Amino acid sequence: MHLNTTGIVLREVNYKESDKILTLLTRDEGKLTVSARGCRRKNSPIAAVSQQLCCSDFTLYEYRGRWSIREGELRQEFRHVRSDLDKLSLGAWFAELRRSADGGGCTCAGGAQPAAELSLRHGCAGEVPEALQAGV
């Protein structure tokens, strides 16, 4: 089964030698746990889309009961947020707050849709929330 969706990487955990386990906030499916196989290898085509706080278009496939990234296209990198420690810590705090807001268990679109839509609207539309711009 394949899934095309837009999402923001909320969390990344290194796994094995060249893989990552990502938590994505998607527009269509809510929160998903995704495997990014080989993303830490040199010249990996999915390395850019596997970074925290990156907004991307993903093509996912189901493999052994877990979603995996087949390919991705970076929409917005938020380099200005990741290069400033204050903005990065605030962005990571918002990402963690959003990740834990549903209690860690909901992967359905119905319960997470309003928050996912709000987060993606501000995250991927080229706009940065005022708190991140100010670096509060």
Which features would summarize this protein structure in a list?
136 residues; alpha+beta; five-stranded mixed β-barrel; 4 helices; 36% strand
Write up what this structure looks like:
With 136 residues, this protein is of the alpha+beta class. Strands 1-2-3-5-4 form a five-stranded mixed barrel. The radius of gyration is 14 Å and the shape is globular. It starts with a strand and ends with a helix. Mean pLDDT is 78; it is low at 105-118. The longest helix is centred in the C-terminal third of the chain and has 16 residues, at 85-100. It contains four helices and five strands. It has helices at residues 79-83, 85-100, 109-124, 130-134; strands at 2-15, 19-26, 30-36, 55-63, 66-76. A hairpin with a 3-residue loop joins strand 2 (19-26) and strand 3 (30-36).
List the helices and strands and how they pair.
Layout: E1 2-15, E2 19-26, E3 30-36, E4 55-63, E5 66-76, H1 79-83, H2 85-100, H3 109-124, H4 130-134
Parallel strand pairs: 3-5
Antiparallel strand pairs: 1-2, 1-4, 2-3, 4-5
* Major sheet description: 5 strands, mixed, barrel
Gross morphology: globular
The amount of beta strand, in percent, is: 35-45%
Q: What structural class do you assign from the helix and strand content?
A: alpha+beta
Order of helices and strands: EEEEEHHHH
Short description:
The chain is α+β, with helices and mostly antiparallel strands. It has four helices and five strands, in the order E-E-E-E-E-H-H-H-H.
